[in-house]
Amino acid sequence: MSILAAVLVAETAALSGDIQTNEASFEAAAPKARKNDDGKTGASSNVRNAGGLLVKEAGIQRNDQLMSVDMNMDLSELGVRTNRVTVFTPMLVSPTDTSAFPSFAVFGRNRWFYYLRNDLRVVPDGNAWRKKNAPEDLEYSANIPFEEWMNGAELKLRKEDCGCCGDVLDSAYYALGAYRVYEPAYLYAAVPERNVAKMRSLEGNAYVDFPVSETVIYPDYHSNRSELAKIVGQIDSVRMDSDINVKSIFIKGYASPESPYDNNTRLAKGRTEAIRAYVTGMYDFPEGLITTDYEPENWEELRTYVAASKLPSRKHILALIDKDEEPDRKEWLIKSRYKEDYAYLLKNCYPYLRRTYYRIDYQIRTFTEADVDHIRELVGTAPQKLSLEEFYMAAEGLDPQSGLFQEIFDVAVRMYPGDPVANLNAANVAMQGGDYGRAAKYIERAEGLPEAVYARGVLAALEGDRQTAVEWFTKASGLGISQAEAELEKL
To answer: Which residues make beta-bridge pairs with 236?
Structure first.
């Protein structure tokens, strides 16, 4: 299965806790005992020394229009002189822009009392401690407005040692990692060429009325003009389309069970022939394109109607209909035994048993690359004309971020809801648009395709589940999806 040349990049899809630690920026600190999630005590290998402040955990992620930073820090090893204050400020830094999160500060003894006496606001309320009373474990969480430049920005912790007059005596920056947006490559699969003719059908029923025992059509009789227009309108809808070739027209007439069977046979046959002649006279179709058949008595639909009815004698009438009996005898038994029910059927059911079924079989031409503009137009106007291969042809060469590109695969899966390839491509469009729930449903229907395994990895990564994403990408790689290795590298 070929892969669409275009590689798509997600708009914004940060993984939860997207901190990629830059170990070279830290002085290694001895792991400090801490309790794990299961309550047991173990060593944390992620503890980093940022100028005496131990950063045990750090995470940053985008939440809609906010950038959020969360850190767990240990202040017990931090040394602060009595006349100084140390101010820490988490920051996002890019080559061109910088944005700071709220600062927090630890004061030496003398500096702390000076701070209180003069009601200074070095940092926001609640973010300042005297060294003696500073929490050993500090949970820090803060938000700032998101800006586009923050994609790829580094998270740094600025440390400033300030003297008695507020002068910055010393400063340093400690890199905690970077905010990385997961940018997946979406694999759009092409449909193998099937070279199958695009055969379609239109069908319907017309209720053309005839005077009693006659087989001649009177267009102005009852509602015949509108009923005949049904057939002609359906034929015209395909005959006048330059993309379509009418292959055959089939007409079958049905009569109702009343009257002798021989007479019903004459009526069904003659009336069907009259409608065939009417249609033939409207067009210059080649001989043999229109074929006919007839049903002298429409017992099948009579049975369906009775079975769904609430007639008092419903069960008895059904038993007679199912009985292996000569048709005229069967009809006489119903009429004579269940007179009221028969009268009801004669008025409310029998007129609809006398009908003309028609079916128009036609073939849609096969489109080529030279027709790509026309194909793209059909996506919005007549998608039923397109094969899956032609939907794919329409998408080739378009910007994967464009609305038309995404519309093509959305429409394709509506036209071919059971096709694995159509569902895979629709899943990619849904993921690109951030509709992960819909994407998951499409991926389920693409089961069996190696690309669907890969798509599961992309979806898990977009939803922040690294472990599951790694599992799916590893499996996809084993199935021959080379792009899966690149996605593993990103994670």
So the answer is: none
Helical segments of 90-148, H only: 109-117
Nearest to 14 by CA among 58, 59, 57, 61: 61
Q: What integer pLDDT is reported at residue 259 of this predicted model?
A: 77
Residues 6+ apart with CB under 8 A from 465: none
Taking the CA atoms of residue 397, residue 400, residue 405 and residue 410 in that order, the dihedral angle to the nearest 10 degrees is 140
What is the predicted pLDDT for the residue at 31? 34
Is the CB of residue 14 less than 8 Å from the CB of residue 155? no
- pLDDT on residue 114: 84
Residue 470 near residue 478, CB atoms below 8 Å: no
Long-range CB contacts for residues 58-61, cutoff 8 Å, separation at least 24: 58/19, 58/155, 58/176, 58/177, 59/16, 59/17, 59/18, 59/19, 60/17, 60/18, 60/19, 60/92, 60/155, 60/177, 60/179, 61/14, 61/15, 61/16, 61/17, 61/18, 61/179
| Paired tokens of 179 | 């905010």
Reading the block at residue 337, the tokens are 């035994």
Q: What is the Cα–Cα distance from 136 to 116, expressed in whole angstroms?
A: 22
- State the Cα–Cα distance between residues 231 and 208, nearest whole angstrom: 11
Closest to 139 (Cα-Cα) out of 189, 223, 70, 224: 70
The stretches in the chain having pLDDT less than 70 are 1-46, 122, 125, 192-195
**Six-digit token string for 399:** 């910007």
C-alpha distances in angstroms, 341 versus 301, 318, 488?
A: 16, 12, 74
**pLDDT tens-digit map of 146-173:** 988 888 889 999 999 988 777 888 999 9
Cα–Cα distance measured from residue 475 to residue 479, given in angstroms and rounded to the nearest whole number: 6
CA atoms of 347 and 263, how far apart (whole Å): 20
Q: Any bridge partners for residue 130, and if so which?
A: 107
- The side-by-side arrangement of strands in the sheet containing 53-63 is 27-28, 48-50, 53-63, 66-74, 137-145
Per the CB < 8 A criterion, the answer to whether 25 and 474 are in contact is: no
Distance from the first to the final alpha carbon of the chain? 26
Specify the pLDDT at position 196: 79
249 φ/ψ angles, rounded to the nearest 5 degrees: -130, 130
Q: What three-state secondary structure class fits 126?
A: coil
pLDDT score recorded for residue 115: 82
The answer to whether the beta carbons of residues 157 and 57 sit under 8 Å apart is no
Q: Assess contact for 69 and 60: CB atoms under 8 A.
A: yes
**CA-to-CA distance for 347 and 311, rounded, in angstroms?**
14
| Token reading at 235 | 């034929």
Backbone phi and psi for residue 443, each to the nearest 5 degrees, phi listed first? -65, -40
Tell me, rounded to whole angstroms, the distance of Cα 360 from its chain centroid.
34
